Amino acid sequence: MRQTKIVLPDNEIPTKWYNIMADMPNLPKPPLHPGTKQPAGPDDLTPIFPMALIEQEVSQERWIDIPEEVLDVYTLWRPSPMFRAHRLEEALGTPAKIYYKYEGVSPAGSHKPNTAIPQAFYNKQAGMKRISTETGAGQWGASLALAGSLFGIDITVYMVKVSYGQKPYRRIQMETWGAEVFPSPSTKTQAGTKILEGDPDSPGSLGIAISEAVEDAATHQDTNYALGSVLNHVLLHQTVIGLEAKKQFEMVGDYPDVIFGCCGGGSNLAGASFPFIQDKIAGKELRVVAVEPQSCPTLTKGEFRYDFGDTIGMTPLLMMYTLGHDFVPPGIHAGGLRYHADAPLVCQLYHDGLMEAVAYGQTGVFEAAIQFAKTEGIIPAPETAHAIKGVIDEAIKAKEEGKERTIFFNLSGHGYLDLQAYADYLSNKLQDYEYPEEKIKEALSKLPQI
Description:
The protein contains 19 helices and 15 strands. By secondary structure, the protein is α/β, with parallel strands linked by helices.
């Protein structure tokens, strides 16, 4: 019988997170205060983050201990299984070996609880009563709602309006775990009200929702803010994925030649790849490919410069590949990939040539998702389907070249609460949309000159 699942025992859960900043050839430029444009220090972040997370954000220590209380919750789904995609390989007729880590086994159905749990823990430890946050597709909002219920902390979620309408079951999931959910832009904040005054029919964006959540936290003393991607400490927490995967590859005597990950803010791509990029920096032959939608082509068409993380301009300026902080993407179904920029760590690695990037239209992405579902059985989230499209293209290339290679990707979440997206694809309602160059140039022209 061939081996399909590679499973680690509970006692093999990583007890430390891996911090890639200890090994990067070039560190990202420092965040800048939104008002003074000078480097932001820990004191600038204390109004919205607990000190434990601020310390992780700036740390250059290679290994950060995972608290026992966090490890105890991780055991609900970690270690997650890794699978060999035998049936997909056979359907493609490829000599390539395809492996995927399955993060859909978490209670929230995605990789997001890997950081939601520690963020809720550190905020509870700091005496916070409530956390405000944003969410696009709803995976992050659901994960933080879960974490809040486990640690007894209230959660307020500003959900991008177009996703709020597209994905009602995500909202119900959050509310079941006790979270309060508002469609963004909302009238609950000055930021949301300002957006609605200018565009009453605004579909919302992650940048707008971040503005609302940050304002909420900054104006309530008992409330902190939590982000589901982009920041260093978020990517740090996600490295449990890649650390487990390295052990699982050792169990089968294999190692990836190429890693694919969908990229919106960068958390799942980083979580799966950073522990392997540590080897690449040390000289190992390895390709890492970020996959993004053509409608939000941050790495492939954005510019590497300082920009705000939110639409209003309340957050520190970060050095990122960006499409402009007031970028409002079309309402594609991959809501988690609609952010205007990417994590500074991912951007720096891409800038230094340690990562590649490719962008796809959503019809080809859903075609790949359907093929994966028909062979491997799991219906993937629309975000993850972008990585699957990259994997299938790479496997076909291996077939054409007649060369073996080992391909790895992170199946970052299931799509069982995203079935409307599949319904739209199957009824031919989805259209590809390539974001126009002139609109990108217009948005970038409004960026602060640093």
